[in-house]
Amino acid sequence: MIETGRIAPDFTLPRDGGDMVTLSDQRPAKVVLYFYPKDNTPGCTTEALDFSALAAEFAEAGGRVFGISRDSVKKHENFCARHGLKVALLSDEDGATCEAYGVWVEKQNYGKTYMGIERSTFLIDARGQIAKVWRKVKVKDHAAEVLEAARGL
To answer: What does 33-95 look like in DSSP terms, one character per residue?
Structure first.
């Protein structure tokens, strides 16, 4: 389990647009990693739009926001284009980063058990340490709450 005060697990993942993003290369910026289940689903779209609406404010606070799911780069590009998203979406198709952050979990829906991404957010400080963790995120007002926490670092 990821705990506050520990160095965030490093990764390099492809993003929409084709570039690669390495977490450790983002220092000394504050980094928000929000893990979400699937592109173009209602909750995930709302969350992406909320983070996009606050993208400039995150930048003013010295932060960078990255959404991560197991969807492909192509799906991310379509999702960004369809909704005009202003945050980078990273593709973790093999699930290694989801595993490292402990968000690949057993879930239940309508009596069926399956593996999936638990909606979770991690705020990482300028030193690369986990500053705050949100698990089982409810989308409403979440992006604003993360922004306030980022401003407080």
So the answer is: EEE-S-TTSHHHHHHHHHHHHTHHHHHHTTEEEEEEESS-HHHHHHHHHHHT--SEEEE-TT-
